[in-house]
Amino acid sequence: MPENVSPLAAHGPKPGSQSALRQRNEQLIVATLREQGALPQAALARSTGLSTATISNIVKAMCASGLAATHPTTSSGRRALAVSLLETTDVAAGIDFGRSHVRMVLASPGFKVRAEKFAPLPVGHLAAESITAAAAMMNELLKESGIDRSQIIGAGVGVPGPIDHGTGTVIRGAILPEWVGVNIVSQLEEALRMPIFADNDANLGALAQVTWGEHRGVKDLVFLKIGSGIGAGLILNGSPYYGHTGVTGEIGHATIFDQGLVCRCGNRGCLETVASTAVMIELLSRGESYTLTVPEIIKKANAGDAATLRVIDDAGMAVGKAMANVVNMINPEIIVVGGPLAPLGDTLLNPIRRGLIRHAVPAIGEGTTVVMSSLGDRAEALGAIALALSHSHHQ
Which single residue of 40, 95, 369, 379 could bond 334 by disulfide (Cβ 3.0 to 4.6 Å)? Predict the structure, then answer.
């Protein structure tokens, strides 16, 4: 089991630092105690795969901060120390801004969802309007759930595009060009009156898989978000990976066809020009009297519509080809696919697997598992909560 880390945000612990390394392990301990109840430290070490020394250190810190308590017990006839969670009134928020929606989730540190809201936003929404909508949504959520604003220790925020982690601003390449140059951190802190930690949506999707999802023990994971744009979040050796400038996983701009369509990034034949939901909608709406939606595309695919299945197959093969370069380089254990096409299941996964096997080194392609995310549309918001919780421990 890796000694894992929490991600970088606009401010907070640097990835790889000792304080950051502890965070995911603490979340793992909390989740295990939540599921199994009070456990002796040795049993906790077995359940989590962490060393007894790591367990002992983190449990001491959790007791000091009021998250846990220890009490004497017997285990296999010997005296031992059992650990139990103490309920806390703390709540963390996760906010996911998409191209045409905002989702907000409130949860306690034990990964227990307390409240949730979703609202559509117009395509091309301006940051100021969306922030106002999020502030109103937060007020409604607090009122409906009976949670006081003072209980919220912070909010993680996901946006569909790269973020300059030094300044908290959205940078060029975002699916929301209207947000480029906006200091999302300071504007949201002002509107919501709480600490804000921002990241790219695919990075948060990756974080969600290893904190909330069933992949908690995975050291090397790629979360691939296929939506209006295509991005990837990386967990390498147990740590979210941010690279030199904090912009990683721009798989949507891998060149697939040299003679392909011109992409919004200015290059030709990018993966996004053949495999994003925007392109699928464009291709499949031809000959229709109206513009199809993603749920309608999924419905047509499930009904066996030949054109729909062809477009999905082409997209999946292109995604697999682009991912082959990634897996050849980093050899992940698992690729988790998320985004609005998740209900397609194997209809989308099978062509991705075929493209991957065809273009990757055989031993690597065949050794990489490709699955759909089980977290659905909530992955980014849940990852945002994990981000906020990680920073609350370092204030």
Answer: 369
Structure tokens at 191: 């509107």
3-state DSSP call for residue 235? strand
Whether 102 and 137 have beta carbons less than 8 Å apart is answered as: yes
Half-sphere exposure (CA, 13 Å, Cβ side) for 307? 10
Same fold, 18-85 and 91-206+378-392: no
Rounded CA separation 111/131 (Å):
25
Give the residue from 15, 31, 343 showing the smallest Cα distance to 214.
31
What is 346-362 written as a DSSP string? Answer: HHHHHHHHHHHHHHS-H
**Paired sense of beta strands 68-75 and 78-85, if any:** antiparallel
How is domain 214-374 classified at the CATH fold level? Nucleotidyltransferase; domain 5 (3.30.420)
Architecture of domain 18-85: Orthogonal Bundle (1.10)
| Rounded CA separation 31/214 (Å) | 11
- Token pair of 33, please? 């105690």
> 295-333 b/e with 16+ CB inside 10 Å = b?
ebbbebbeeeeeebbebbbbbbbbbbbbbbebbeeeebe
The matching CATH number, chosen from 3.30.530.20, 3.30.420.40, 3.40.190.10, 3.40.50.2000, for 91-206+378-392 is 3.30.420.40
Tokens for 224, please give them: 């691939």
In the chain, DSSP finds a helix count (H) and a strand count (E) of 13, 15
Q: What's the CA gap between 273 and 372, in Å, rounded?
A: 22
Q: Which residues contact 26 (CB under 8 A, 6 or more apart)?
A: 58, 61, 62, 393
pLDDT value at 225 more than 60: yes
Give pLDDT, residue 61: 87
In the structure encoding, which two tokens stand for residue 309, read together? 């299945």
Average of per-residue pLDDT across 388-394: 74
**Percent of the chain, pLDDT > 70?**
94
Q: DSSP for 72-84, please give it.
A: EEEETTEEEEEEE
Q: Which pLDDT tens digit goes with each residue over 132-167?
A: 999 999 999 999 999 999 999 999 999 998 999 888
